[in-house]
């Protein structure tokens, strides 16, 4: 059964990217995975099965915690 992955989540890989980074942000999730390196910004693509074998830890999605975000939503409700 596939791991529950979604776009925007950050994953830590078992091996480092050639630039030295090991944290990637998921850009596309399906039968194939596309992810971008958080250190250098380059993209990797690979089959989901291979990608899931290389994951060490799922760190979760990046959350926008800016104080102005709630105000924007309130203005849009009017």
Question: What is the structure about, briefly put?
Answer:
This protein is an alpha+beta fold. It is built from two helices and five strands. A hairpin with a 2-residue loop joins strand 2 (about 25-30) and strand 3.
Strand proportion, as a percent range, falls in 35-45%
Q: With helices defined by DSSP (H or I, 4 residues minimum), what is the helix count?
A: 2
Helical content band: 10-25%
- SSE sequence, one letter per element: EEEEHEH
Question: What's the mean pLDDT score?
Answer: 82
Rg over alpha carbons? 15 Å
Shape: globular
Which stretches are low in confidence, meaning pLDDT under 50 for 5 or more residues running? Answer: 69-73
Q: What spatial order of strands do you see in the largest sheet?
A: 4-3-2-1-5
Q: What labels would you give this structure?
A:
78 residues; 22% helix; alpha+beta; five-stranded antiparallel β-sheet
Secondary-structure blueprint:
Blueprint (H helix, E strand, L loop, with lengths): L8 E5 L9 E7 L2 E6 L5 E5 H7 E7 L6 H10 L1
Antiparallel strand pairs: 1-2, 1-5, 2-3, 3-4
Structure description:
The chain is of the alpha+beta class and 78 residues long. The chain has a domain at 9-62. Helices cover 22% and strands 38% of the residues. The chain has a five-stranded antiparallel beta sheet, with helices on one face. A hairpin with a 2-residue loop joins strand 2 and strand 3 (32-37). It is globular and about 30 Å long. Residues 69-73 have low confidence and may be disordered.
């Amino acid at each position: 059964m596939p791991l529950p992955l979604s776009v925007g989540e950050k994953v830590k890989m078992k091996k480092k990217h050639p630039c030295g980074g090991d944290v990637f942000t998921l850009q596309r999730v399906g039968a194939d995975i596309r992810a971008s390196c958080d250190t250098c910004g380059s993209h990797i693509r690979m089959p989901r099965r291979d990608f899931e074998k290389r994951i060490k830890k799922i760190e979760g999605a990046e959350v926008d915690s800016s104080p102005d975000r709630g105000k924007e939503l309130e203005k849009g409700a009017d």
